[in-house]
Write a structure and sequence with these properties.
85% helix, homodimer
Chain lengths: 93, 93
């Protein structure tokens, strides 16, 4: 394929938009209901750490679709993880 | 930061490993239980399309961590989507 740089970026931004959009309802539902019982702490920690590393990787290779998508998803995932940790510590009391 | 190319790749592979690993339990549970009632068809279609575009983006910019992570996640997401579509069409009969 013979794509120009801005066409390549458009593909990356479409990918970023779709995967971030697909993640939003989870975040909104967790905030609204504060019901994190269905969310696995272990799996969510792995996911959040992974997204954080994708963000670092994106910053190093200087690819903006990767940086923007993972910065947003990392912020959302971290806030859900914080809710989950508060939820878990409450139930331990 | 002054990182060598292979160190940058290691960060990308760690990111790929973590986010793919975090996605596996969803796939395994969906296969085992065949219960896709909690999975939103619309959101899952967006996610699968997004991962497919990340794969294309990774192939174009030739970054192997992106290619491997998204090829595996795309295959898993597509198989869950296929189960969901079969599940949905069964319930319509």
């Amino acid at each position: 394929m013979n794509l120009e740089p801005h066409q390549i970026e458009v593909i990356g931004y479409c990918a970023a938009f779709l995967t971030t959009l697909a993640f939003l309802p989870q975040a909104i539902q967790s905030w609204k209901t504060r019901d994190l019982s269905g969310v696995s702490l272990g799996m969510y920690s792995l996911f959040t750490a992974g997204v954080g590393l994708w963000l670092i990787y994106g910053l190093i290779i200087e690819k903006w679709p990767l940086i923007l998508a993972n910065a947003l998803t990392f912020a959302l995932a971290l806030s859900i993880l914080a809710l989950k940790l508060r939820h878990t510590s409450k139930h331990r009391k």
